[in-house]
Design a protein that fits this description.
Chain lengths: 337, 421, 337, 421
């Protein structure tokens, strides 16, 4: 057991798995000697050599495509896309190729590969270092999408992703790399060290893909969240003194429908929160699922608390960011109705 | 020229849009095409630096001369059995294409694509590589499967999307895939397979394996970013891969000038990236074999990738959905100066006394019979028109290794819907 | 007034606009001399010359990017992507560039451009000639997304799209290019000639972007549809003898929220239908919007009738396709509850 | 080497991963870099076929020799005023960079990027082109704005994301955009601007206009598919565009070998596509000017695109978020054999008697004062830290020409939220 922040936990997940399995290789922009712009792969090249950990050309298409080829060969590549905002050049290879290879080859060519990428805002990164594109990948078949919210889950889920025999997109909320963030940008940041989920076991363990966690039990209203928003949800429930149940989805495809249904049927009210733009975001899928399956338990409409349908701004980042000031009133509204 | 932007002593610009030499109604004229004499091009040592191929990319590797003699340093000096086997494979591909094309016309399937005139490019390459090397093909390299004795019946079942379709009716006809035969799944998305082949080759190098990869791509598809990424990665990591550009001069209705073919050769791309490049007479099976063997040797010796342009001509339409007379002169293919690959190899075998007309005739008939028989067997398992692959449960399998709840639910919905129908 | 099928109507829209505005140029794979694989641009190069109508390299990224540059110059490019399934190589240029240029340049560089692309299945095109990727474009700001369901709208909406000063994605349901399709694959196809909406005015007219049409009035249940599904909805309502109101959205961004609300508040029941895969499809957004805004009028959950979350199949196309056999029971269920 | 895949007489492959010559702790050694003598490279006629530049791409266009004399056929023979203006612009860029870098360190903004050592590449190009030509830059061509007299205060307001920010606080610092100055919006997504520049140039040709475009891209970003698409379209349609590759040998922590820089030059890409290519000493303002003027002439004469590699070195870190000592030897930049562009142009002006140390000193101080004054004026309008651009309504404008209902609703939500805060 060691206290680790999210970067250290992710780095350790790589280390543990590369130690166990010689077929795991790591590639991406600046991931080699330098260890990644967020240091997630720090030290791996030194330990495992340049043919297992290497820098890639600035070509996300090529990074994904060569990872597909490596997985087709039988390796288990872990590719880093430097920022989720830069995943689009690789979109076709992910959507049309990685997501369909097992299917179109009738199972002959499964692709065990992980695409990791730092995502989300809150770091004054402007419109190209802040996006949350998870909904895109939820819409197309064949891709699992994982989003951890703390160091313990980050390591366990990344190990599960590496061991999974299907392509997994692994979004890392960069705002909480170094500490949980509750959405109060004007308060001092707390490091992970003070957080129980920073107690990360050494060695191998995994957190199952497709299983949500109940981050907070409650009776009054269900909050569906993932990534940074889990911390916003917890803080807001406290601040508002609302008996909210906070579900940390952890995986959005496949989503843990039992956990969602059980909670909403208990509380009868549901608020969905994500940082991505609202229209056709994953919150729409969650709202659709909840009203389809819990309609007669719902006492109020499912409310979406999200980023706005505009490019992620720079100077007005905190106006855009869905924090307690947005979630609080939504919770109260969900309870009023 | 529009007024607002007019400026003194600045000439008006105009857009250049390349046009093919001939359109329907015009006389097709290939006389401007430079064809170096067979045997005239030097053959660098396999271990030569890539820069040693810099001028080769503007010429053509040619082995078979006009009379069918194999000449020059690129002659692979193949034994007669191999030559006959290659001839047989090319003839078989052509018979197969004709039958399947007709089957589509008869409504037995939705779509088909022939490779007429390009048989040597796949067949000779397959024979020049090892059985356990891997291929990342496009839809015009059915010859690779034939050369590796992939069962014709299976190919046909895929084309028919019938009960025997190894791909369970999931893929468009001709989008074959077979791991056991080292034939990677054909993608409908052009060019995607090329960087994937590079990744496979990198993996082989990472594991200290000795197997190499080969990818094929059309002239038109080289414009995709995938191609650029593929060549870049292949060069940087010295991936043991052969990158074949099949320049048949057409991309559906678009001639190769729109892909940059009027500016330089496709083989010249290799120079731009600093990797080895060759330009080959794609209708000369021995030239294709020799160039492939040279590139394979380099790759196996850890000397990295070679880009090979196969200069050829798309004799038939793009696919069964296409009518080429709408955009190019009729019968252009017959006038192609580099001739027919099957005929050229046949003439060579005859010229060295290892083949004759009777045997050719006999083989032609034997192959026709073989294909007819295979077709009967395949059609016994159904066609798209009648008795196509139908297993509702399977529609929801292989999306993931195990089926998540939402696919289980959707499968049940589909089964219920089928019961109602 | 001339009877036109959808291809002829779209071709005419190009012709009418190119005649009026010398700044309109057309580019795409095979759109020039040949006139496009679906013939939508037939005759235009002959009439307007190669510098206004020309073939493009097979590079969807380059097609979109050069169109962006042309629009930045002041032209109004109309780019064809041969099949919507092949739009992904251009995804980054659409999402990150076209959709944000007006915003990130504070209005200095608007991009009046149209990206047309045949989409949807029902033609045995397999997984790469059948997709419906509309939801992707609905999720990112700055792009309008239009989907016509008949020749009259096709021409009017394409003219509106060309005249719009923002990037417009124009999805053409290829299954109904030559005639309406009600989803009964075993019945003879009817040509457009027999359909009132094939009466297409000559010359210039436009159909406003963002306005839905009531394709069928009804009191019992609201069906939200677009493209091919409009015809499936109409046919199913008839076949089931259900007094359904069919809303043809025509535009999904911006969606006509008034029309949706008015109808659902009237009927109290809503079924959403689209051909795209279900999870995180645009149907999720519609279901989320409806339950957010009409919750207290809803007598039953919003039901989604969609394609399945698998790659579009070849041989089992009709098992995948959401036709009357899927919509009918959904309508009955919506009425039962 | 893993057992299963071992095979007789087949050598084991291994992955080649290029490594820079020196890492932290090593002595940096640039002695292997080939530097042709200034003036030694021939200058083809502007109307020469693209193929006439085939060997030029392996050398360097150099004008300023060691003593600051301008020599050889590429000497643009500029008048002293232009030379002094270029020197002034380069000096100003450097002063500006230093101030803004410091401002970021002082917490006045979130991010900054310098172009130290690369000033000539933007400044000389801007002066070699017409005022109404358009630029599609990356984040390291702030010199283009300076050369076109874009107000320093506006630049600073953008960097501060303050009330005076012409981009309304929407963009990351240094992502300038100004239509009036022909400076296209800088994108955070690398390489996207290059095919856009080609499209703009195609439009200019379509309209019979005479204006041309120029794009810049880094060595690392050339690996993106956008670059390939850009060069392909530019070549095919003979777009009047200059494609500048700024090879400063680093991409954050990744050296140019990972982009293929060890295999050949970036200028050689031009050969691969069959367009004109030049390779230039990027620290030699006169060479940059001459090459740009040559390419501009070709473009204006409807002879199509030119790809120019500017060979230089990234002296500073990638950005304020980067510490280069973590991956390369300290002070590597100071050892760069092609010297400092400002110093080299200064020496040239002095050598021709058009400049001296006093004037240089005076100008240095004048520029410093000018920048300080501009900074005061900019900061009076706020910084990101205090008084950044804040107008909630504007957050929802310019997404579309007119605001659809959902953005109106969201704006109202945001305004209500602000009132609550
Ligand atoms: C990404 C993508 N864009 C467009 C298409 C449509 N398409 C299929 S084949 C083809 C022409 C390909 O020409 P070429 O690469 O020369 O190969 P050939 O057909 O000549 O063998 C096109 C445009 C596609 N399949 N994928
Ligand atoms: C598509 C994309 N991928 C990755 C990045 C992250 N990134 C920003 S700058 C940079 C390095 C660029 O290097 P180079 O092109 O050589 O330009 P330079 O910084 O040296 O001027 C990277 C990888 C990005 N901005 N966009
Ligand atoms: Mg071709
Ligand atoms: Mg660089």
């Amino acid at each position: 057991m060691t206290v680790r922040n999210m970067i250290e936990a992710l780095n350790d997940a790589h280390d543990v798995m590369m130690e166990r399995d010689g077929d795991i290789v790591v590639l991406g922009e600046d991931v080699g000697y330098f260890g990644g712009v967020f240091r997630v792969t720090a030290g791996l090249q030194k330990k495992y050599g340049t043919s297992r950990v290497f820098d890639a050309p600035i070509a996300e298409l090529g990074i994904v495509a060569t990872a597909i080829g490596m997985a087709a060969y039988g390796l288990r590549p872990v590719a880093e896309i430097q920022f989720a905002d830069y995943i689009y050049p690789g979109f076709d290879q992910i959507i049309s190729e990685a997501g369909r290879m097992r299917y179109r080859t009738a199972g002959e060519w499964p692709l065990p590969m992980v695409i990791r990428t730092p995502y989300g805002g809150g770091i004054f990164g402007g419109q190209t270092h802040s996006q949350s594109p998870e909904a895109f990948f939820a819409h197309m078949p064949g891709i699992k999408t994982v989003i951890p919210s703390n160091p313990y889950d980050a390591k366990g889920l990344l190990i599960a992703a590496i061991e999974d025999n299907d392509p997994v997109l692994f979004f890392e909320p960069k705002r909480i790399y170094n500490g949980p963030f509750e959405g109060y940008h004007d308060r001092p940041v707390t490091p992970w060290a003070k957080h129980p989920a920073a107690e990360v076991p050494d060695g191998h363990y995994s957190v199952p893909i497709g299983k949500a966690a109940i981050a907070r039990e409650g009776e009054a209203v269900t909050i569906l969240a993932y990534g940074t928003m889990v911390h916003v949800a917890l803080a807001t429930a406290e601040a508002e003194g609302i008996d909210a149940e906070v579900i940390d989805l952890r995986t959005i495809v496949p989503v843990d429908i039992e956990a969602i249904e059980a909670s909403v049927k208990k509380t009868g009210r549901c608020v969905v929160i994500h940082e991505a733009t609202r229209t056709a975001g994953f919150g729409a899928e969650l709202a659709a699922l909840v009203q389809e399956r819990c309609f007669y338990h719902l006492e109020a409409p499912v409310i979406r608390v999200t980023g706005y349908d505009v490019p992620y701004p720079h100077s007005m980042e905190w106006t855009y960011f869905p924090g307690p000031a947005r979630l609080g009133p939504a919770l109260r509204k969900a309870l009023e109705d | 020229m529009n007024k607002e932007t007019e400026r003194p002593n600045r000439p008006a610009l105009s857009l250049h849009v390349p046009e093919p030499d001939a359109r329907p109604g015009d006389e097709i004229d290939f006389s401007h095409i430079e064809i170096p004499a067979a045997g005239s091009l030097r053959r660098p040592d396999v271990a030569a630096p890539a820069s040693d191929t810099r001028e080769l990319v503007y010429s053509l590797v040619r082995v078979l001369d006009h009379d069918g003699a194999a000449v020059g340093p690129w002659d692979p000096r193949l034994d007669p059995d191999t030559l006959r086997r290659m001839l047989r494979d090319m003839m078989l591909v052509r018979v197969y294409d004709d039958r399947m094309y007709r089957a589509q016309r008869q409504g037995k399937t939705s779509f088909y694509m022939k490779c007429t005139g390009e048989e040597a490019i796949a067949v000779a390459a397959a024979h020049a590589m090892d059985r356990d090397d891997i291929f990342f093909p496009t839809y015009r390299q059915q010859g690779l499967l034939v050369a590796r004795d992939y069962p014709l019946v299976k190919m046909m079942c895929q084309v028919y999307s019938n009960k025997g379709d190894p791909l369970k009716g999931r893929q468009l006809p001709i989008m074959y895939s077979d791991r056991g035969h080292g034939f990677f799944s054909i993608s409908g998305n052009l060019a995607t397979q090329v960087p994937q082949a590079v990744g496979w080759a990198m993996a082989s190098a990472i594991k200290g394996d000795s197997r190499i990869a080969a990818a094929w791509i059309g002239d038109g598809a080289t414009a995709e970013g995938d191609f650029h990424n593929a060549v870049t990665f292949a060069g940087v990591y010295r991936a043991p891969v052969i990158l074949n550009v099949v320049n048949n001069q057409w991309a559906i209705s678009t001639f190769s000038g729109i892909a940059g073919g009027n500016l330089t050769t496709f083989a010249a791309r290799a120079v731009g990236y600093g990797i080895a490049g060759l330009r080959v007479d794609g209708n000369d099976a021995l030239a294709v074999y020799a160039a492939t063997a040279w590139a394979a040797d380099r790759a196996r010796s850890n000397l990295g990738p070679t880009l090979i342009e196969h200069f050829t001509y798309r004799v038939e339409g793009h696919s069964t959905s296409d009518d080429p007379t709408a955009y190019r002169p009729q019968g252009a293919g017959a006038k192609w100066p580099l001739g027919d690959p099957v005929e050229r190899l046949r003439r060579h075998l005859v010229s060295i006394g290892e083949w004759d007309d009777e045997r050719h005739q006999a083989q032609q008939e034997a192959l026709a019979a073989e294909v007819r028989a295979a077709q009967r067997e395949a059609e016994a398992q159904g066609t798209l028109g009648s008795g196509h692959y139908e297993d509702i449960g399977s529609l929801f399998e292989d999306v993931f290794e195990d089926q998540p709840w939402h696919l289980r639910e959707q499968r049940d919905e589909a089964l219920a819907e089928a019961r109602r129908k």
